[in-house]
């Protein structure tokens, strides 16, 4: 996801952090690098201009210049501005779905064909039944493609929600009204309406969806956009936004090799919050969009919070909370913690899902690695830690040559492997430290609060 952009920006961030003094020259150079990285990622020009000028203004400001660590302060500015163009300035409430209406709350889905609308309906339905225990009904008004109606039926079954079967001989507005009536009579909390998309902007499609909007007065009108579309996405978003009172955006296929343009432009262009992000083809591949977190990922600062959350869902809740607490209170990341991390990586279905959330430098190192091999490697590292005494796990610095030989023998590996494991541990430890000094923990706390 957004790999190139992340790699380029992570490099700039690293340089910036190291700068003890900000001069006109090095600031300009950094901004130039950021600008190029954004343009290359296909971010819309007005968005890039606006972003750079805001960062430049703040870079000259007292908060940065007067800071003891100006490079670091500038990274903070970039981080904040990046989060803001993706909607952090709208506040957390902005990403929540609105249900402040007499049920059923109608959610109208708009967007071009193939962007992932139908899949998103399924994901949303599942999310709403699971997370908020809503009773959901879905309906498709895509009378032009019977296969599309069938697809929604299948997806709805998979999501375990009710599906209103529509006749392809009926008119879209009639179908929507009938489904709304059905939802009322069967006490559904939410009705999600999937609509017909075209391959490009089309006057007829726009009129149809505007008519649908008028007929069912949705509380949410979500524009679904494919993150891989880059600049094109911006034009499509603008047109939809002009034709319909959109309330939010769903950014799909963020797991693909999207360059990032759409993710960074679409909020700025439409003024509407990105509410959800699609991160896989599966029904559970939907995340509530978090601009601050996304900004961190893009800057190669990883997403420890997401890791902790994922760990919470899949594995040892207590262990994840303990680590979080320990790190927050300034505790040391020792080998016991490292081992917990390794175990969690494995129970999260191997390393590949985990990697996307790690800081860029880790991702790069791991990119070429064969995943199977990597998983085996993780198990061996666990074996090595298992051969250590509790004292060694707590204070890895006492592990000198003799201890290494004993540990290696115990785990049935070469001493080099013990060394390698220790250096990987150190890498992760210094990453945790860096994130702390970089204000990551503080930010995480503010995000949670
Ligand atoms: P629609 O024409 O807009 O209804 O699009 P579909 O829901 O049929 O999706 C088109 C294709 O995109 C399908 O192959 C989906 O599996 C895929 N897709 C949808 N959302 C995502 C996503 O978030 N990630 C990935 N990788 N694929 C997705």
TrEMBL record:
Cytoplasm found in the keyword field: yes
GO cellular component, one term: signal recognition particle
Known catalytic reactions: GTP + H2O = GDP + phosphate + H(+)
PROSITE patterns the record matches: SRP54 (PS00300)
Subcellular location: Cytoplasm
Domain SRP54-type proteins GTP-binding per the UniProt entry, residue ranges: 273-286
InterPro entries in the cross-refs: AAA+_ATPase (IPR003593), P-loop_NTPase (IPR027417), Signal_recog_part_SRP54_M_sf (IPR036891), Signal_recog_particl_SRP54_hlx (IPR013822), Signal_recog_particle_SRP54_M (IPR004125), SRP (IPR004780), SRP/SRP_N (IPR036225), SRP54 (IPR022941)
HAMAP family given in the database record: SRP54
Subunit structure: Part of the signal recognition particle protein translocation system, which is composed of SRP and FtsY. SRP is a ribonucleoprotein composed of Ffh and a 4.5S RNA molecule.
Protein name: Signal recognition particle protein
Annotated organism of origin: Oxalobacter vibrioformis
